[in-house]
Amino acid sequence: MKKIITLKILLVVSLFANVTLTLEEEKNWQLETVVAKEVTYVPIGEYIMDVTIPPKLLRTISVPYEAQVVKLEKVNYEKVSKGELLAQLTATKWIEAQRKVIADAIELIHHEHLAERKSKLCKEEIIAQKDCIAADAEVKTDKIKLSASKTLLNAYGASDLMINKLYKDLIISPNMQLLSPVDGVLLHVNILPGKSVSPSSALFVIKVDGNNWLESNLPQQIANKLKSSQELIITIDGNDIKSKVLHISPIVNLHNQTRYVRFYLDKEVELLAGLRKKAQISIKKKAFLISKKAVVQDGDSSIVFIKKGNTYLAQKVDVIAEDANMCYLNYNAILNEPIVINTTSVLQNMLQQDK
């Protein structure tokens, strides 16, 4: 048993030694070398991801009363600007709210005239001062009532411009203009001309300009390699997308041992919301990229042969990732030298035979 262990140790030692070839031997074996490519990102796997919209980028437009659609101005997926007309609605509560503003405005105007006239009489001491104080209090009460009526009308969807026009002209508008509150794109239009809409139902959903998310349920061992705000590259359909980690769930899914991870997606990237794609994740890490043919396995160790003149040095390496054809090796400055990428088994056998 002791002899077997000693033999194994000697064999391992031999693999991390040098072998020197003559020019004729190099020519006969046709050894080929390349310089490994230095990279700054290393892939950690390929997984399914969903393109989603952050809730803060969505604006829902509704009305707090039952209404009927008179006219529809916009449809799904159209771009809209802030203040642009989306639809015209009519409703009993809408008309009643306008009537209340007009009634409160007329009452305020009437009491303001009375207060102004009484103020003159008080200055001439024709009427008691308490009558002027009472008239001023009545005007103040009317202003509060009018302000409340305007606020209700504003909650019903009237703009400040429309409310001011109503206060000035005292003319009821049968239709309410539903305006876009933001610049964006209409994702959903849930109304039709001539149809009724229920209170607080989502009539329009608008996506404002902003960055989307990429979301995925990653295996726990992969999620453990990530951390919040970490920079990385996500490759989709051959396109490299610069991203970063926004959120990692602290909870592991008991059914499939995955963790939810959210990534940043720049708004300039042309990936539509709702898209589900396979994506490769690459984390920022200094490494070398080399053909898998260059790497020789010896038990649990991986080695490459580095050429220096006519001498070939067996160098132990750490393989941190690989695909069908290439290996990513942990950074080591010595790997800047030419590395053998073919007939490596010949060099391995020669080292063993020499021993």
What would you say this structure looks like, in words?
The chain has 355 residues and is α+β, with helices and mostly antiparallel strands. It has helices spanning 2-15, 23-29, 92-123, 129-155, 160-169, 220-223, 344-354, and strands spanning 18-20, 33-34, 37-52, 58-61, 67-72, 79-80, 85-90, 176-179, 184-189, 196-197, 204-208, 212-219, 231-236, 239-248, 258-265, 276-291, 296-298, 301-308, 311-317, 319-322, 326-330, 339-340. It contains 7 helices and 22 strands. A 6-stranded antiparallel barrel has the order 3-12-15-14-13-16. Strands 1-19-18-17 form a 4-stranded antiparallel β-sheet. Helix 3 packs antiparallel against helix 4 (129-155).
Structural class: alpha+beta
The shape, in one word, is: rod-shaped
Strand order of the largest sheet: 3-12-15-14-13-16
Mean pLDDT: 87
**Unreliable residue stretches:** 1-15
Number of helices: 7
In terms of DSSP E residues, the strand content is 35-45%
What is the radius of gyration? 38 Å
Fraction of residues in H or I helices: 25-40%
For the terminal residues, how far apart are their CA atoms? 20 Å
Largest sheet: 6 strands, antiparallel, barrel
Q: List SSEs in N-to-C order.
A: HEHEEEEEEHHHEEEEEHEEEEEEEEEEH
